[in-house]
Specification:
- The complex is a heterodimer.
- Chain A contains four helices and 15 strands.
- Chain A is an alpha+beta fold.
- In chain A, the strands form three sheets. In chain A, strands 1, 2, 3, 4, 5, 9, 14 and 15 form an eight-stranded antiparallel beta sheet that branches.
- The longest helix of chain A has 15 residues.
- Chain A is globular, with a radius of gyration of 19 Å.
- Chain B folds into two domains: about 350 residues, no CATH class; about 60 residues, 2-Layer Sandwich (Dna Ligase, domain 1), CATH 3.30.1490.
- Helix content of chain B is about 30%, strand content about 25%.
- In chain B, a hairpin with a 2-residue loop joins strand 8 and strand 9.
- In chain B, helix 2 packs across helix 6, helix 3 packs across helix 12 and helix 8 packs across helix 9.
- Chain B is globular.
- The chains are: A alpha+beta, B alpha+beta.
- Chains A and B meet through strand 1, strand 3, strand 4 and strand 14 of A and helix 5 and strand 8 of B.
Chain lengths: ~260, ~450
């Protein structure tokens, strides 16, 4: 069991004023057995946005969402969340696996090269053993290189280029795992440490979802806070928005997770 | 009847004046075409139609139950009636809709079921359209124009009135409305069915709106006016699922409404038809509809599917490969008459290639026996009548009750050798009369 203190903030600035800005955030820790949100604060600001106009919801993947709408002119949107999370893997409860995690999703469709790759790994055994081997293989295949891919890069494209960031590692891992008939899903979240948000993956065995971090070739243990899950990145970005206006957008994010004293 | 036939040109001219057009994209360019109207109505006797009604209601009720099950408990998968991968590999299945309970549990409010009448006198279902089936407006306005041009025809023939479609649509919208006005949401002027969107709004008393007129605030959908925004309780959207909400589906969509899905999930607005319905009108799922009827309703299917084979099953694969020359092969991901191949039209080499493709991707295709369906008389410009293949799209509305509109869109092929009647393939249309014998 671990008690973690977290903060996560992000600021979007626009080069010119924008209007009719609709957004959907997944910036709060996901509510699930094994991850208890002990306390939290949310601060969202942009234009004259009143906090009480934000609408909390839950998407079809079980993630907490915050929806907002700013009609008036504004040139930034920022959000900051902080709080305390109690992570305890022993408290995870058995759950059914939605079949959607067993099939290709739009960003994880395997290429013929990936099919050959997984075939050549000659995977046998329990899902968790297999997942571990896949995580190691993905880690060895990739070299970590920010800027070589973007948020729309698919698993097949990243695999081809052999380089990428955590999102790409996770996508390729998921794609290979599903080919090996192991249910797998994408996770976006906050690991212990500081810097940017992170992505990893979970595989399902006997009712429990287990976390793997192929970027770091390790288990996603109790030091990892889950924000959102989905079939791939497209289902669970921490922030999505559309607005009217002719403006460039810049984003700055920061997160920190540390042991709670 | 002859009096009505004399007015063919006049009715077509008026249809053109009303803007009854059909838009199609050819090589990326938008073309607008008149939808040619043939004045000889398809006539279906009241007794025959009663049987159709029963069968169509049964089918749509089962399809609604199926959708509710797929996005809910998934019992039909657990019981092995439908193989799981037909659902999860279907492009119409949307994981983003898992667990959403639409108002009154209705998924397909407006269903367009395509049928043909075989030469054996049996009606066969060709396909179910549960996403945004279009076409009701064409016979609707044609009937009104025919009545104006030739009122005597309707005095002498006992034709069941079909002009209540707008009222039926309003009743469905009112039934699922979550508080607020009814809206018909169109992608805009350059959509193939724009005439229909505007006409149905007029007929049902709903507001016709485009994406710029609509926004979601605090999980409530609003319509912009010059004064305060007005709350919307039901939205009959004519925008397809993938473009409906850029924050949930295709992020680049400019014709959607951001956070509409959030409002829908919160239960504050009804969306007609529900997003995600494509999983039930998939050509692969079609095969299983008779099984659904027995499974959910415990009844025997009243209407027949065309004899269909799924290469996914080994037996059906063998049959398909050995009879390819006499079957029609359909790509399950295509619609609108695209992706349909008649084995008899193919050369030996093409047949060989197709066989290979089917073996490589069995899940992608279905094969069907070619149904020799009845031809209907068409009035040519020189006054001659010729026989052409025709089908029928029946409209089934699900609100408080599931009812069949006593009319329908009859489409015919203008090409004497073609079985494909889709309007996107250049066909024309007829009114459909339900006649009461005196």
């Amino acid at each position: 069991m671990k008690k973690l203190e977290f903060e996560f903030s992000s600021c979007l600035t626009f080069s010119a004023s924008v209007t009719d800005h609709a957004f959907l955030l997944r910036c709060l820790p996901r509510l699930a057995a094994g991850q208890e949100l002990v306390s939290h604060d949310v601060l969202i600001s942009g234009g004259k946005l009143p906090m009480e106009s934000l609408a909390k919801g839950r998407d079809s993947f079980g993630n907490t969402t915050i929806a907002g709408w700013i009609a008036e002119e504004h040139d930034s949107l920022s959000y900051a969340v902080s709080g305390v999370v109690l992570r305890d893997d022993r408290k995870k409860e058995r759950e059914e696996c939605s079949p959607c995690y067993r099939y290709d999703s739009s960003m994880t469709k395997p290429s013929p090269e990936m099919k050959a790759f997984v075939h050549q790994l000659d995977l046998k055994g329990e899902p968790l053993e297999v997942a571990e081997r896949i995580a190691d293989a993905v880690h060895a295949w990739f070299s970590y290189a920010p800027g070589t891919t973007d948020v729309n890069t698919t698993a097949a494209e990243a695999f081809q280029s052999k380089s990428g960031v955590c999102q790409d590692y996770a996508h390729v891992f998921i794609s290979l795992a599903r080919m090996a008939e192991i249910p797998a899903r994408y996770v976006c979240g906050l690991p212990k440490g500081e810097g940017a948000t992170h992505a990893w993956a979970e595989v399902w065995q006997d009712g429990i979802w287990y976390g793997y971090d192929p970027t770091r070739a390790c288990h996603a243990d109790e030091g990892y806070i889950v924000l959102a899950v989905g079939r791939d990145y497209g289902d669970c970005p921490t922030e999505r928005g559309v607005f009217k206006g002719n403006a460039f957008q810049m984003q700055q994010s920061f997160m920190q997770v540390r042991n709670c004293s | 009847m002859n009096e009505l036939l004399m007015h063919k040109e006049q009715v077509n001219e008026q249809l053109a004046r009303y803007g009854v057009k059909f838009g199609i994209y050819k090589n990326g360019v938008f073309h607008e075409r008149l939808f040619p109207f043939d004045p000889i109505p398809r006539q279906i006797g009241r007794d025959d139609f009663s049987l159709l009604e029963k069968g169509l209601r049964q089918r749509v009720m089962a399809l609604n139950r199926f959708l509710s099950d797929i996005y809910g408990k998934k019992e039909i998968l657990r019981d092995g009636i439908v193989p799981e991968e037909f659902v999860y590999r279907s492009p119409g299945y949307l994981a983003e809709c898992e667990g959403i309970q639409p108002p009154e549990s209705i998924y397909s409010h407006i269903s367009g079921i395509d049928l043909v009448l075989g030469k054996d006198g049996v009606w066969y279902i060709l396909e179910d359209n549960l996403r945004i089936p279009s076409g009701a407006s064409y016979p609707l306005i044609a009937r009104a124009l025919c009545r104006n041009c030739s009122p005597n025809t309707f005095r002498r023939n006992t034709v069941q009135d079909n002009r209540n479609y707008g009222a039926m649509l309003k009743e469905v919208m009112d039934h699922v409305n979550r508080g607020g006005i009814n809206v018909i949401f169109t992608p805009g002027r350059y959509n193939a069915a724009y005439f229909e969107h505007s006409y149905l709004a007029e007929q049902s008393g709903a507001i016709l709106a485009e994406s710029a007129d609509l926004f979601v605030d605090q999980q409530v959908l609003y319509y912009r006016t010059s004064q305060d925004p007005v709350r919307i309780g039901a939205i009959y959207r004519r925008v397809s699922d993938e473009y409906l909400d850029p924050l949930c589906f295709e992020p680049s969509s400019l014709i959607g409404i951001p956070n509409l899905m959030d409002a829908y999930r919160a239960g504050n607005v009804a969306i007609l038809n529900s997003p995600g319905n494509g999983v039930a009108d998939d050509k692969g799922i079609y095969y299983f509809v008779p099984k659904m009827i027995s499974y959910y309703l415990g009844e025997k299917p009243i209407l027949h599917n065309a004899p269909t084979y799924l290469p996914y099953f080994r037996e059906d694969m063998e049959y398909t490969l050995s009879h390819l020359g006499e079957l029609v092969i359909k790509d399950v991901a295509e619609a609108g008459g695209y992706g349909v191949v008649f084995g008899c039209d193919l050369s030996e080499e093409e047949l060989g290639n197709l066989k290979e493709t089917i073996q490589k991707e069995p899940r992608r295709f279905i094969s069907q026996s070619v149904i020799d369906f009845q031809e209907l008389p068409i009035l040519e410009d020189d006054g001659q009548q010729v026989m052409r293949k025709a089908d029928l799209r029946a409209f089934v509305l699900s609100g408080k009750d599931t009812v069949v509109w006593p009319s329908g869109l009859t489409r015919f092929s203008r090409n004497p050798d073609s079985f494909v009647v889709n309007s996107s393939q250049g066909g024309g249309f007829k009114d459909t009369w339900i006649t009461v014998s005196q």
